[in-house]
Design goal:
about 220 residues, alpha/beta, Rossmann fold, four-stranded parallel β-sheet, three-stranded parallel β-sheet
Length: about 220
């Protein structure tokens, strides 16, 4: 994943436009100031670039998107994208997902590498590794997930998704969480749900699991 100027790797040279505007300066510019520059770049790059706009973006961003939607839909569009450049107007975990699903030679660009998600930040990889080590020491599972199926919500980092996959787990969305939990229970009698407690707890409760059978691990 990159945050570099795409002009450096294409026939379109941003130097032919007006001086490059830093992100810091862009944030204080009036709305629509960048419209002409964006249209010029889009026209020059043509089908080589696809712009994905998360539906919470502001109007001045979303109106230039080729596709709009939630993180799951946009990741699907990223997987189908034919152009060389995928510009993801969203947060870090979304661009990571698009990068994972992209083909060799494609470049995923997140305009602001500091764009984060508070939910994804609820589970940091070292915390999850610590939790899993405790479960292994307690004899509830082994290193590969024979005993507990890990399930993570799509709002999680690529490192978390990889951790879950390596232990036979699955990534879910809010709409298919019940199906993911049923799938997990078909493998093991226990689940570890990430990154926050509420989707897992509420889904489990709706499926008939008593609250006293669901434990929240305290990373602190």
């Amino acid at each position: 994943m990159a945050s570099a100027s795409i002009g450096a790797e294409s026939e379109y040279n941003l130097a032919t436009a007006s001086a490059v505007c830093s992100l810091e300066n862009y944030l204080v510019l009036p709305d629509y100031t960048m419209d002409d520059r964006i249209r010029e770049a889009r026209q020059a790059l043509g089908s080589e670039v696809v712009v994905l706009g998360y539906h919470y973006q502001r109007d001045e961003v979303i109106r230039f998107a080729d596709f709009r939607g939630d993180s799951y839909k946009l990741s699907q569009e990223a997987a189908r994208a034919q152009g060389r450049y995928i510009i993801f107007c969203g947060v870090h975990f979304m661009a990571e997902s698009a990068d994972v699903l992209s083909r060799p030679g494609q470049i995923t660009i997140l305009p602001d590498l500091n764009a984060g998600c508070s939910m994804a930040d609820m589970a940091e990889i070292t915390q999850v590794e610590d939790c899993w080590e405790q479960l292994v020491r307690a004899g509830m599972t082994d290193d590969l997930g024979d005993g507990i199926t890990p399930v993570t919500y799509v709002n999680s980092t690529a490192a978390i998704k990889a951790f879950v996959g390596e232990r036979g787990g699955v990534v879910c969305t809010s709409s298919n969480a019940p199906a993911a939990i049923k799938w997990g229970f078909a493998r093991n009698k226990k689940l570890l749900f990430l990154p926050d407690q509420h989707l897992g707890r509420n889904t489990g409760y709706a499926m008939g699991i008593p609250l006293n059978e669901m434990i929240v691990w305290d990373s602190y």
